[in-house]
């Protein structure tokens, strides 16, 4: 009995031990010519199952991770941080396994890889921030910074059940904006682009909370099949001589094109320009014209312009570039345009 | 082995079994929502495969009608045997409305233009993709989810 106990305790210690892998002993020398920095958060602790054309079951977060790693390996002059938030699993039924993976690439090479435990929150900000702070290359050459979030719709208010393994853990857009704010302090700048690859986060409150930390935001004001904005589409633009704005427009356009090529459902992406949109949103929220759009999420999101003709000011429209393709079937199949802003159908407009 | 030893051994076995059962139950308690969501996705993936494999439009349309109707019946059954709270009612109504809208469009009811015979494969893709995108299971209580799971797994299949 004693022996079994000792073995079990040893296994637990083994599983709990830190297993950071420095996978490239030249890590410190891979510092030159870093021009771009990318941060990826991939939420996988939920139902991300889908079936491909052959009926094979795949997990969307795993598929996204492959594409993110491909992007990291093929982005020259770039530093890439990847956090994969996985489902809780157990070893021998008893012992929890580490449910977070961290990868760090520099100039296309994997230089660090680590698994760790989440600690209480969906984004255990301290864990993620300490990894970034200890690994980041503070080169003065960095020109552009990008942030990506892949997952289900980020709620405006606390909703239990966002995490399948830890349904009681709360998460909302304010929590994510705290992480983005902390990262922007570390990089000592705003991001150039934040991509919210989720359903429905192209809504006024989500954009209001995240736009202070970025020059542009790419998000969907409607459903986004498999939360899928393919980050590989960023590789060519960032390696081109295009201006930042044109790089981002090209990324948005190619992402939209690849989405419409394999879906029959609605596809709508919006690119929000902070300089034009944020002052307007700030006024709307500060003056109470918009309230936090809390509501019963089952009532769904609809195009804001369908709620009221003058809800969106010319300034908001001017700062929003919309990529829209109507669904092939359903009520919206004949609707030819979208404002680029999603509102909960029970929004309170004053 | 005397009686006392036998009793102690059985008690130990029972306690160990109870411990294992509790741990297993805890491990899976948080995943019910995901299990049912995955079941629904699997259901529509199977439907899509059957539609694609069907020889003619009549058969394809029958498979689609049958699949949509059967799941709708499952939810109606759920309403009759389980007293739902408002949140759950909203979810179930929303889901049933979604199924009804697709059924209506497939058959040209409620003002919809009937899905054309040569668009039935695309329509099956659309239904599957729409269900894969559905992001609405998260706040349903575990009890309701278990009932839905039973309905989907036992009644609908």
Describe this entry's structure for a reader.
- The complex is a heterodimer of chains A (350) and B (157).
- Helices cover 29% and strands 23% of the residues of chain A.
- By secondary structure, chain A is of the alpha/beta class.
- In chain A, the strands form 4 sheets. A 9-stranded mixed β-sheet of chain A has the order 8-7-4-1-9-10-11-12-14, sandwiched between helices. A two-stranded antiparallel ribbon of chain A has the order 2-3. A two-stranded antiparallel ribbon of chain A has the order 5-6.
- Mean pLDDT of chain A is 84; it is low at 11-18.
- Chain B has 6 helices and no strands.
- In chain B, helix 3 (57-81) runs antiparallel to helix 4 (86-107) and helix 3 (57-81) packs across helix 6 (142-156).
- Chain B is elongated.
- Residues 21-30 of chain B have low confidence and may be disordered.
- The interface between A and B is large, with 42 and 40 residues.
Strand order of the biggest β-sheet of chain A? 8-7-4-1-9-10-11-12-14
Q: How far do the termini of chain A sit from each other?
A: 70 Å
In N-to-C order, the SSE pattern of chain A is HEEEHEEEEEHEHEHEHHEHEHEE
What is the total tally of β strands of chain B? 0
So what's the oligomer here? heterodimer
Biggest interface, chains and residue tallies? A-B, 42 and 40 residues
> Low-confidence parts of chain A, pLDDT < 50 over ≥5 residues?
11-18
Helix content of chain B: over 70%
How far is the first residue's CA from the last residue's CA of chain B?
51 Å
Rg of Cα set of chain B: 22 Å
Largest beta-sheet details of chain A: 9 strands, mixed
Q: How many individual helices of chain B?
A: 6
Largest sheet of chain B: none
Portion in helices of chain A: 25-40%
Order of helices and strands of chain B: HHHHHH
Structural class from helices and strands of chain B?
mainly alpha
Average pLDDT confidence of chain B is 78
Q: What percentage of amino acids of chain B are in beta strands?
A: under 5%
